[in-house]
Write a structure and sequence with these properties.
Elements: H1 6-15, H2 20-50, H3 55-80, H4 85-116, H5 118-122, H6 131-140, H7 142-169, H8 176-203
Amino acid sequence: MFKNSYFSRKLHSLLGVIPVGFFLIEHLLTNYSAAKGGPVGFLESVEWLHSLPLVLALEIFGIWIPLAYHAIYGLYVAYTARNNVSNYGYFRNQMFFLQRVTGVITFIFVAWHFFQTRFQIAIGSVDQMAIGSHMHQIASNPVYFVFYVIGVVAATFHFSNGMWSFLVSWGITIGPRAQRVSTYVWIGVFVVMTVMFIMSLVAFLDPAFQQVTSLTKG
């Protein structure tokens, strides 16, 4: 279906940055508001997001369709890819391999997280403004907590290493020196994003999230 067309690969690469990468960053900032501002700060972020005009259309066409293409084509690439030590060397070849592995893990994690949160809101099982309490229940489960840690580490690695590859494939970082500097930059981004996500997850363990289900209740 996909073959190895230049267009398919470029579209997959571009969608990994815009809008999927932006979605990951937005998700990071929204969830980090739980660590920074507690239950009320998190609910304010959630309320602001859902107050955006045409939010459903933005989700469908700006997030889920691009994400679905990036994920499905990424699985195809992971299945058909072959490591190339002679061209990239040992370190980059390992990053190439880990990019594929973390892509699969991220796909599973995002699908499950969507089912546990956004899908449950859509079918009415969870109230939109009770998502903080719902996340507290998820984070308080040791199995889910470990699963979420693995998922966010995989997602942030996949994004950061994918950005390194994006800059190379689009001719932005040309030459060994630029690519070496880019490696250090994106390692730093990976560490910062991972720490912020885990801090957010730990914040949801606070029992206070059970007590705040709207901005009008304390």
